[in-house]
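A favour between colleagues. Tell me how you read the following sequence-structure pair.

===
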Amino acid sequence: MKILIPNTIELRLRSEAEAEVVVYDVESALPHEHRDAEVLVAWHNPADRLREAARVLPDLRLVQALASGADVVLSAGFADDVRICSGRSLHDGPVAEHALALVLAAVRRLDLLRDAQREHVWHEGFIRAQAAPETQGRHTLAGARVTIWGFGSIAARLAPALELLGAQVRGIARSAGVREGIEVRADDDAPRILADTDVLISLLPATAETTDRIGAGAFSALPPGSVFVNVGRGATVDERALVDALVSGQLRAAAIDVTKTEPLPADSPLWDAPNLLITPHVAGNRPVGASALIDENVARLRDGRELVNQVSPDAGSATASAKTR
């Protein structure tokens, strides 16, 4: 068995003892002598190179994406008999940490304090606002009603940290239930849940069904002055509606790590949107335990067993980012 691993990450596979492991350049055409590979590992691959791989790897049996979502791989056009697996769980810790950092930055309005620092201003107005009885509740997670939309393994890691800081955490997902001790409501209940939300965190994956799911309707359902954080996928947010909600004050602050087009174009209205913090898709970007996942799925593939994190072809996104992340 031949396994192609990308040059964008250092991996140490136990599989090397029983398979030929070849490092390939994600930015270049796959060498002809390695187009007999049965396993392709994808990480930060340009979408056009993935489409090329789908055309030129006739013996391919498995594409192992290291991104938490496999939307770009799913949209590349691999044959129906090629099994595709995501890197779900590899990013739980890093993404949860970054999500918590963005939530705290937005709630505590660190962006305003940073701006004041640049202007050499001791922000007396902020000092009064975060202490005044009528506004101090906006500057803390203690007692805040936090909703996580897209409740999977990352949310399960993030929720306890939010609760530790005093937040009341709920989730929204495709189906209702109790997950890791957190009440999760179905998507159909979203308007009612959003109306009772101070901080909305999106961890939604990019699929045809979630494209622009968080738009004008969702933002207007939130109480005025709410906070929005997106560490899921850029395709799930209507960016024009996000800017409008910030300009109108419906959202008092927002923080996003993902956008529809990445890198974000210099002329995007998001850059100049008020009260918006942008980070360049760095919430995950370092899959933890990737080698072990690859080894496990290679062994399962060889033995004909069910694979870890296998995704369905119809779960692909209609709008893919430029690179797998």
